[in-house]
Amino acid sequence: MISQLSWKVGGQQGEGIESTGEIFSIALNRLGYYLYGYRHFSSRIKGGHTNNKIRVSTTQVRSIADDLDILVAFDQETIDFNFHELRQGGIVIADAKFNPTIPDESRATLYAVPFTDIATELGTALMKNMVAVGASSAVLGLDISVYEGVVQEIFGRKGEQVVAKNMEAIRAGAQFMREQLGDNIQLMQLEKADGKKRMFMIGNDAIALGALAGGSRFMAAYPITPASEIMEYLIKKLPQFGGTVIQTEDEIAACTMAIGANYAGVRTLTASAGPGLSLMMEAIGLAGITETPIVIVDTQRGGPSTGLPTKQEQSDLMAMIYGTHGEIPKVVIAPSTVQEAFYDMVEAFNIAEEYQCPVIVLTDLQLSLGKQTVEPLEYDKIEIRRGKLVTGELPEIPDKGCFKRYEVTEDGVSPRVLPGMKNGIHHVTGVEHDETGRPSEVAANRIAQMDKRLRKLKHIQFPTPVHKHVKHEEADILIVGFNSTRGAIEEAMERLERDGIKVNHAHVRLIHPFPTEEMLPLVQSAKKVVVVENNATGQLANILKMNVGHAEKVFNVLKYDGNPFLPHEVYTKCKELF
Amino acid sequence: MATFKDFRNNIKPNWCPGCGDFSVQAAIQRAAANVGLEPHELVVVSGIGCSGRISGYINSYGFHGVHGRALPIAQGVKMANRDLTVIAAGGDGDGFAIGMGHTIHAIRRNIDITYIVMDNQIYGLTKGQTSPRSEVGFKTKSTPQGSVEPALSIMEMALTAGATFVAQSFSSDLKELTQLIEEGMKHKGFSLINVFSPCVTYNKVNTYDWFKDNLTSLSSIEGYDPSNREMAMQTLMKHKGLVTGLIYQNKERKSYQDLVPGYSEKPLTEADLTISKEKFDQLVAEFM
Predict the structure, then answer these.
(1) Is the C or the N end of chain B the one with fewer CB within 10 Å?
(2) What is the ipTM of this complex?
(3) How far apart are CA A69 and CA B266, in angstroms?
């Protein structure tokens, strides 16, 4: 019996690879296993190799595995592309239809299963993915009856017969595989999971759900990989709350429309990836100077320009902190897990309203699209805070004077009234302005307003600015990362500890303003600081050096080939530095 | 009841003496009072340029945004609070050059706001460059030998983009302009009002006198029917776009807010920000 393994299904994009992985993983999730998925896909609708790698475990996992146990192949290309990942003793389950072969140097065993023929015999070749699901389940020793509910949900509307046929395909696949395996069936039987119900979702689902729970009722967005799922979820759900999503003509419209709606008092988000964020930069400056709250999600992907649109990267960091001309207060939050993505969205809206400034929630492709098991989200943790939003009646202002929307205050935050309120009239402009919003070029006023705006960040409160995994007062290595690298770092850390190396781990959750006070003691108490990030120039390392110093002991571990870090890569690089 | 004086504030516009925008400012103030608004019920969103300053010269809520983006900001305001009356305003450069993408899509989206363009066929604030509304041969600092690009036929463009309210006016005719803005505000959907608003400093061709000589009032055309899109298009083409009055109105098509499924009839600003435990559990269960 084993407690965890990795399974991958591959084939041509558009031939059901997604649904094979989806059905298999939903069933495993219902049995109580923890899952962590990674999709390899291309920027095209049909054709091209695609695969879906899923790690299955009886305990929480937050990284893809170093190697592979089971490869399900719908074509020879899948075997040729992926066999090198298979561990010794791993297996390939391939459709017998294409006469699969396995390269001589492979350490895995090939099982040819007639996916297509079995499916065709049962009625339609379309069900070949169900045969593959059945075969996979046999290897793991799963109880096939778990699929009854799943298949009913997916095919129920097509009628009982379709449901029955698909179940039959799963059973037939399992039966065939069991016969093929013979005594080898013992090799990969999975330990029983706890059977607890848990959520199974991608980061983008959690972001969208977090926006909803955080009181957002409107979204303006333009489709882009890997952010579109956020708008797709919200357009299904927001109408139930009276709200909606507008698909705008471009990202400039998305951001400025969101600014308009936030100005008018509705918590509004937009979400995009690098190219969209580049277009939004001028508008972000407008939100900064007009002190309009707004939440913007940036799901990082490979840049620059169109770059690697369907691949992992963490290279927008500097652009998110410093992007837009001039100087504005801005907050950049980076969740490192799907749960955090949910809570961070709620908090992002709170901070945006409390500090009246743009808040960027930064994720990366792997966090946004990697489907994984999520521990329960707690309703009681959801809290709505609207800061200095003025409600109730306002006193009349004599002589057509204006409400002091930009009153200079100690904490830099001014009272905020919404359009439509009597006696609250003021002006809002991207031009430098006085306390009532009237344009002003007076030097003293300029300084007062700039200082007031920038002062807001000094008071910012974020619940967990750094996720700390600190076991040692003095560490040999402090590993620093952000976003989805957390799981790979945690696993590497365990292995380094087993080798006798003292490792602390700090995952930066508040990117800007940088949590210098939290990070400084950790850096000081480590012999070496290793910053692990998916980019080519060490952006987080540079930000760390700039804020915390100690450049002499900061080292880069970089990966920018479009793929997420594997635990052994982090381990090996740290080991080399040590 | 508020009067047009209630929509005046104590800010002195920085426009040149004789600028056409003064009349547009006055017409908005009069129209707002005439349709029965109180100053706090109106939001004027404007772009960048001389005309973009207009949101600061009206006693109402005002938002002066970035160049070319008055329309998406204004649409956002309206979507957030459908009880507000929202006017977007700006120049021909703002709406028909840098912001043209938004103009076309705001027209076809048909959210219930009024867009007033102060069209002077030139870039004024940057001191005299060609605009998408400048005629071929028009000499400016950026086209010293005369523009070789044809002017956009903006009213025809609006019709082809699916506009439900298209009007054009001239800043000298305060009465007609006020009336058209009133009608635009009352129209259930997106209303576009293009106003010839001469730049007395940089445009020495399209002057007040030039417009007086070249404009045709639709009221002088016998049998003109603003509900007839084909007639509107033919009339515009015949007069090279130089007509004033209500060019086209479609009263049948509903506004975006009334078509989009599930969108609240109450302002979204009044929506409850919390979701019930029961609803939350239901949303969570969908991922299990």
Answers:
(1) N
(2) 0.98
(3) 56
